[in-house]
Amino acid sequence: MENSSLVIMAGGASSRMKNSLANATVSKTVLDAARDLHKSLIPLGENGKPLLYYLIKNAITAGITHIYLITSKDTSGFNRFLETYKDEPGFSSLTVQFAIQHIPPTRKKPLGTADALQQCMDQYPILKENSFTVCNGDNLYSTAVFKLLKAERKAPHAIIAYSGHGLGFDDEKLAKFAVLAIDENSFLTHIIEKPGVDQLQSYKDEKGELRISMNIFNFTGADCYPFLVNCPINPERDEKELPEAVRNMSKANSKAVYCYPKSEKLPDLTTIADVATFKLTT
């Protein structure tokens, strides 16, 4: 079964980034990009290359040959990006295709990450026949992580279980992610979405470690698709969320989702303040 495809979710509105721009102390070039483009395209550091460039480079090094970019209807910024870096080593042999996350006529915003992946799989049915990796477009996942998820395993799905200490975030930030509960055989038993700072202590494992999902998975398409279709809408956030679909996969089969532990920093772009502190990971 083919397993060299990566789906990058980059169709969100980047609302937290845009809401942080009022008092930003960055160059006009960075400010304009943060205002007008998806945050994965904001120029970073001295060379001005965006996070998406480094993300794709890490994926290529891990053996990814085909990328699906889930975006909004306006792909102009991504088209310019691909044109700019088309001659970079590895990029010329990479196949990149767009999947548009359409907004339902009764809504003003996208229906969430589970819906985004479902729409991608509907637009590219080949994904229903193979295994593939899925990740956010605003986190810089390492080559090592991509390699872990591409490795052969008996479970149909896999997730990276990041060490809370290794990520280097404070409890307030960790509480905004999803905490993982994992059994003694490294299979996922539960995902607790945004548990709150006061509840974090109760989810630590026997080593005193929190295991955090940073929204990077590897799925077997045929097995995951029904869970995307049937994913319920979260009543608070009014979205179909990918972690909820994964939680239901685990409920249906206790050996469905294998968890790979990983301890490393994970650069991300949540607000404009993250642009100044961005550091590469390979």
UniProtKB/TrEMBL annotation:
Q: Where is the Nucleotidyl transferase domain?
A: 34-256
Keyword set for this entry? Answer: Nucleotidyltransferase, Transferase
Which Pfam families does this UniProt record tie to the protein? NTP_transferase
Which organism does this sequence originate in? Croceivirga radicis
Q: Name one GO molecular function term.
A: nucleotidyltransferase activity
Q: Does the record bear Hydrolase in its keywords?
A: no
Q: What is the protein named?
A: Glucose-1-phosphate thymidylyltransferase
Xref: InterPro entries: GlmU-like, NTP_transferase_dom, Nucleotide-diphossugar_trans
**Domain of life where this protein originates:** Bacteria
